Amino acid sequence: MAFLLLVSVFVIATCGLVYELIAGTLASYLLGDSVTQFSTIIGAYLSAMGIGSWLSRYVRRNLVAVFVQVEILVGALGGGSAALLFLVFERVESFRVILYADVLAVGILVGIEIPLLLRILKDRFEFSDLVSRVFTFDYAGALFASILFPLLLVPHLGLIQTGFLFGMMNVLVALWLLYAVPDAIPGARPQRGMAFVVLLALLAGFIHAEDITGTAEAATYPGRVIHAQSTPYQRIVLTRAGRDLRLYLNGNLQFSSLDEYRYHEALVHPALASLDRPRRVLIIGGGDGLALREIWKYPAVEHVTLVDLDPAMTRLFSGNELLTALNGDALKSSRLRIINQDAFLWVRKSAAAGMPPYDAIVIDLPDPSNYSIGKLYSLSFYRALHGLTHAETRIVVQSTSPLVARKSYWCVRNTLAAAGYQVTPYHAYVPAFGEWGYLLASRGHWSPPQRYPDGLRYVSVEETERMLHFPADMAYVDSGVQRLDNQVLVRYFDEEWGAYQTVW
Asked: Quick check: 492 and 405 in contact, CB under 8 A?
């Protein structure tokens, strides 16, 4: 009996940390800025656990019965929290209030568990032995959860199913006690009934998690969700409304099929068309293959290396018929090498290894909405790129909106300049995004191309001249340099886009 109670410590510790990780991950998906969300969620959760530990002192009698009730409650609330939060996100204005109320409630219940178990077990072990055993199992459960969560749970189950699964584990601990020591639990029979009702509800949620996710995402995204997938790195959602196919990563729009050609032509062609015969090209990001589609319009290109962190992206865009029709089967070329690695580490390692330089480098990354992406806009990263360039290499970086996020845009420009590049800013109008900014960097002077490949729908010599002109509301503003130790760009981005979204 004592050993099984210690095993239950392992189970409830695993469940408790999983609920914390679910809340932090979900907040990052929905609200952005992962460092801020995880920091505040963890702080709130740990504070709530402290409150729960303090409240446990007022439990004077029927310790096992109260522990069982806590397990049923934390199983119901913690297990269903991801589903609840996804469902209410687009339906209430006070989402943060509900998020933190849920975190506090779950944290308080989790905080009550260990003090109660210590008191239940105090007559079975010496005090020092009891504390060491309980906390050994507690910390082991936390370690198990921290490894399991990113490697297996999120990629294979997703947040909603994971929540329901671990909620069931809490309820199973309660049911085990209800059958193992019924005499120690007043009203054991009705509590068994309650536990079974909660267990069945959680099981139903687990089975229908995809339906719940679909309902939540139907309210979040315009159009019909035709593909949704959680990976260790992001939430990938594809929607369709008539002819419009849209990609969202962690809730942020990446392209609309109706106008993505404008974005990708503007990204690729001013750089590549300014080269005589570009042979070797590096793409960082761009796992959708749309920038690559534009690159293949240059017959001289002999080899392209595409470095994208998430293998799920490159698999999806090389296997789905709707998407391969959009990118022209660009990802299936024998001239392409796909590398699914962290681009920051890959660039530094490749430059140190003396890899042959590239003629063009196209950086097509998501916006710097969090620190993990922000490092790929940093001074350290741009300096590392020097090792993959020669005197004529052209580097182009998608750099968010110079209209909405003016400081962010010019911060990227300043960072490239601080890394030793000559930088040419330009922008294009993409209806799905509005005014969008790019930065073209090279070691020497860049001149606008006088000729582009045939068949382009947007970019031309005349349009390039317009792209280079910045009206007063997008003109240069003094802003900092993005360094790894300050990540000022992420703060700019969060402030500027946050203010824009609040207004609109």
From this structure: yes
